[in-house]
Amino acid sequence: MGFLTWIVLGGIVGVIAKLIMPGKDPGGFIVTILLGIAGAFVGGYISTLLGFGTVTGFNIISLVIAVIGALILLLLYRMIKK
């Protein structure tokens, strides 16, 4: 995937993750994109370890994997913050 695709996917994934787990998190649009991109990496890594596949492009399976990774990161951030 290209750099621009990662940014777009990261933005979509970050917004979806924050909609699923609403709350008072610091950061604006840039942090949301970074959360989504990092979530794609984490989700891809975990799903590869479990044998489910990885983030391969702009498709529904990659989007679901990335959202799960972003939710994991958001949950970890909130646990550490407390």
Structure report:
This protein has 82 residues and is an all-alpha fold. It has one domain. The protein has three helices and no strands. Helix 1 (3-20) packs across helix 3 and helix 2 packs across helix 3. The radius of gyration is 12 Å and the shape is globular. The chain starts with a helix and ends with a helix. The mean pLDDT is 80.
Features:
single chain; 82 residues; mainly alpha
Concise synopsis of the structure shown:
The protein has about 80 residues and is mainly alpha-helical. It has helices at about 5-20, 30-50, 60-80. The model has no long low-confidence stretch (mean pLDDT about 80).
**Which regions have little confidence, pLDDT < 50, spanning 5+ residues?**
none
Provide the β-strand percentage band: under 5%
Q: Sheet bearing the most strands, described?
A: none
Mean pLDDT, as a whole number? 80
Number of domains: 1
Shape call: globular
* Record field, number of beta strands: 0
Write the layout of secondary structure elements.
Layout: H1 3-20, H2 29-50, H3 60-81
Helix pairs in contact: 1-2, 1-3, 2-3
